[in-house]
Amino acid sequence: PRIRTYAGRVRDILEEMRSYSDGNLVLEVVDPEAFSEDEDRAQSLGIKGEPTTEGEVIYFGIAGSNLVDGLEAIPFFTDEREEYLEYDISRLIKNLKHPENPVLGIVTNLPLDTGAGGLQAAMRGESQSFLIYDELLDRFSLEFLEQDFDSIPNSIDVVLIAHPKPLDDQTTYAIDQFMMRGGRALVFLDPHSEVSLTAGPNGQPVQGYTEASSLDRLMKSWGVDLDPNQVIGDRGNAQRVQAGRDVRRQQTDYVVWMALGPDDANSDDVVTADIDRLNLGTVGHLVQREDATTSFTPVLSSSTDSMLLDLEFVKTGPTPDALLRAFEPTDEAYVIAARVAGPLKSAFPDGPPPAEEESVPGAVIDPAEHLAESKENANLIIVADSEIFDDRFWVQEQSYLGERIAIPMADNATFILNAVDNLMGSNDLISLRAREKSERPFIVVDELRREAEATFLADEEALPAKIAETEERLAALQTRAPAGTDVEEFLSEEEAQEIRTFRAELGQSRTALRDVQRNLRRGIDELGSTVRFVNVALVPLLIVGLALILALLRAQ
Fold it and tell me: Does residue 316 surpass a pLDDT of 70?
């Protein structure tokens, strides 16, 4: 019955989409019987059957195709994704409409494709790319933009800016105008990037590493500030690390490394829909500027058991215990990641910057093409952390027959893939948020049940004890009489009266227990009767009453 209710909601939304499509969306509903051609067809289209407790198989998915050879499927509509039903179906249709792989432009100073060994290790064939890079490569067409560029090709749908080096004016202007043209960006900035400082095979970080990243000029245009001198300390979400040489303590809280859970994520945002745990380190915090033209919606936040730590103090390498001793929570949740949307004003209000002597040969910036304001609302997701990319933070690696096997212990890759996938959609698709589940709790009934249990639970617990005590005393008196004799004739008049009293009390106690058990349901049953009366009889009675009034008025 629960799945049948959800299926009605799915069919309703599909029928509504079909009605708005002017015949461009064809809907076919199939009930595949066991061992039939329809069942084979469902399986071949990627729809999975789920077994029930009765041994049957339920097919509750959707497969879509376009007029070429595109095929997309949702194998099974699970309860966990019900809030995101409209988004999931809309994304399926969008993917069928644009079947080619979307292009993701990457601007980064992290060795995503070579690992900590850098280019030299790659040339020796010893490099190991970040596992998140491999996931992105499987899903999107990746195009690395050079460290210095003066334009972003129109073929790029979304730009991933991951802890870049300081950008010159031409490169900053290229990103600015990309956003003005309606481009979208996923931005990772970090006041202290531990992943950049990861030692390679020679024991040193990759040449040209960047310890801190900021895009001050662009961030001002986007209406967001990132404090470069502070990181978040979060005791409520602190990761547990080795306590050092103290054998009596195996692990302790390390407040500058945090493990965020569902309670720290925006439950209305599809990007965090599948997130159970995110492992981050030395995280900065974001705030909205007072002069912002954009909206600022938190996506990830710290717990309220948090504080801001001075970065210079953290860089001295204090022990976890030293950090805990210096910890003074502010009872404030700090924003780690935010969605920024709305109209933008260019970071270059006076036009393009003058060309530099070392600019890209043949590059020409035409002032006439300068956009001072965005053509359409911007869509960005900004994250104040870069350790999210680091394999050490979210995955355990094993080697099997020479193959690299990754066992995720956090959802860092899922978050990044969700964010890119979401930004690849149209602005309408990006703006979709979670909806309420169709199966809503009966809040009034639950409250009645709690009140009834609080009222009658003490009586229900006391009565069985009283019944047991009465039965025990009655049995003690009755065993005094010899077998085969009348108990009341053998005992004294007082004892016989006591037995009669006990038997009466026993009957009353059992009756009271049954009354208490009925009372536990009385309020709920009365509410149910009221609801049934309102749904079934009240409206017809009101209509009859209104008809009688109208009849009398007409007669007069």
Answer: yes
Q: What are phi and psi of 105, to 5 degrees?
A: -85, 140
CA gap 394, 387 in Å, rounded = 9
**Alpha helix positions (H), 82-212:** 85-97, 118-123, 131-139, 169-180
Note if the pTM is more than 0.85: no
Q: Which two tokens stand for residue 466?
A: 């009283």
User: Could you write out the three-class secondary structure of 156-175?
Assistant: CCEEEEECCCCCCHHHHHHH
- Name 257's Cβ contacts closer than 8 Å, sequence gap at least 6: 238, 239, 241, 279, 280, 281, 282
Residue appearing with tokens 């703006």? 431
Residue 353: strand, helix, or coil: coil
Q: What are phi and psi of 241, to 5 degrees?
A: -130, 170
CA distance 554 to 556: 5
Q: State the DSSP H helix or E strand holding residue 214, giving kind and residue range, or none if neither.
A: none
d(CA 336, CA 383): 6
Tell me the Ramachandran region of residue 115: left when phi exceeds 0, alpha when psi lies from -120 to 50, beta otherwise: left
Residues 93-150 pLDDT 10s: 988 887 778 899 999 999 888 876 666 655 655 668 888 998 898 888 999 997 788 8
Q: What is the pLDDT of residue 361?
A: 46
With contact defined as beta carbons under 8 Å apart, do 303 and 262 qualify? Answer: no
The 10 Å Cβ neighbour count of residue 203 is: 6
Per-residue pLDDT reduced to its tens digit, 119-129: 665 565 566 88
Q: Which residues contact 199 (CB under 8 A, 6 or more apart)?
A: 116, 205
Token pair in block for residue 90: 């809309």
Q: Is the dihedral of CA 500, 504, 507, 509 positive or negative?
A: negative
As a whole number, the mean pLDDT across the chain is: 83
Residue 33 to residue 59: CA distance in whole angstroms: 10
- pLDDT over 90 (residue 512): no
**pLDDT attached to residue 523:** 65
Q: What is the DSSP letter of 264?
A: G
User: Alpha helix (H) ranges present in 395-441?
Assistant: 412-423, 427-430
pLDDT per position as a tens digit, 385-406: 999 999 989 988 776 556 666 7
CA-CA distance, 98 to 67, in Å (whole number)? Answer: 12
Strand ranges (E), 267-355: 278-281, 286-288, 295-301, 306-310, 335-342
Cα-based angle 301, 304, 307 (whole degrees, multiple of 5): 90
The answer on pLDDT for 469 being more than 90 is no
